Amino acid sequence: MEYRQLGASGLRVPVLSFGAGTFGGSGPLFGAWGNTDANEARRMVDVALEAGVNLFDTADVYSEGASEEVLGHAIKGRRDAVLISTKTALPTGDGPADWGTSRSRLIAATDAALKRLGTDYIDLLQLHAFDAHTPIEEVLSALDGLIRAGKIRYIGVSNFAGWELMKSLGISERNGYPRYVAHQVYYSLAGRDYEWELMPLAADQGVGALVWSPLAWGRLTGKIRRGQPLPEGSRLHQTAEYGPPVDDEKLYDIVDVLDEIAAETGRTVPQIALNWLIGRPTVASVIIGARNEEQLRQNLGAVGWSLNVNQVERLDRVSAIAAPYPYFPYRRQAGFARLNPPLT
């Protein structure tokens, strides 16, 4: 397993990490993801650790906290061997204190997560979404206090717009608060919007990308194909409305190229899609999920080898989409491009 620095921090993370959204799954969204119990989860953690995957990602909204509870049971007795990443901000109830990132909510949510996880510290706490109701200074001050108290070690965000992240980093710099070192983002061959603004920001500011849904909400598993109905067991039947939008024809074109490269390499379609992501600029870790041990082992096969230059170029070309303004001049016009060369 390869390990990378998480942004401009001293934390080293594996290029593949494990998403615990299937743990304790319940409800229309998370129940469709999976419902791994504590015994199954412990076995999945065993397999992951054997492969060098020691970062496990969850959130307080995953199955109303059950994901954190199951993960806590699964890592019991080996806390020092794992890194825990969890998230908070999204609503966990209907009360006025059940959502957002106010000082009181952050303190209460962190304490609740620690209890569910059965630990006294969280390696990486991420804000699941931007809270426009709370001053950024209050958010960062509260996170600073939680770090000083030893309850969290590093901080990050998820699903932030570029201006939201950059403004937060500027306030951290001005006030001497800890900086966000991670941004958990949607990024896949079927969804490359991360590249327009968030990727250059991450490269400039030292913010590592933790990629969620790298297989485009299950669309890059090799089971979704042109002219065929959705497989009966596909979670898209229940969850498509929750996931990122994908152009079907574009998706089919991408899968066609993935099929070609699978035949050339002897690798599976998901392994190729994941390997492409691992090679992208600013990506620190790609979060893989699995309903069972077989899926997990297959996804772990995405590391230890590399696509060749021609294969990467073909995937780049078939998955490329037109950049919106103001980004397209920098990609289409030589004068603009000279001012901002592409990331490598």
Structural overview:
- The protein is α/β, with parallel strands linked by helices and 344 residues long.
- The protein has a single domain, classed as Alpha-Beta Barrel (TIM Barrel), CATH 3.20.20.
- It is 41% helix and 14% strand.
- The strands form 2 sheets. It has an 8-stranded parallel barrel, surrounded by 5 helices. The chain has a two-stranded antiparallel sheet with strand order 1-2.
- Helix 2 runs parallel beside helix 11 and helix 3 crosses helix 4.
- The longest helix is centred in the C-terminal third of the chain and has 18 residues.
CATH architecture annotation: Alpha-Beta Barrel
Q: What is the N-to-C succession of helices and strands?
A: EEEHHEHEHEHEHEHEHHHEHHHH
Count of spatially separate domains? 1
Strand order, main sheet: write it out. 3-4-5-6-7-8-9-10
Distance between the termini: 22 Å
Q: Output the CATH homologous superfamily.
A: NADP-dependent oxidoreductase domain
What would you call the shape? Answer: globular
User: What is the share of helical residues?
Assistant: 40-55%
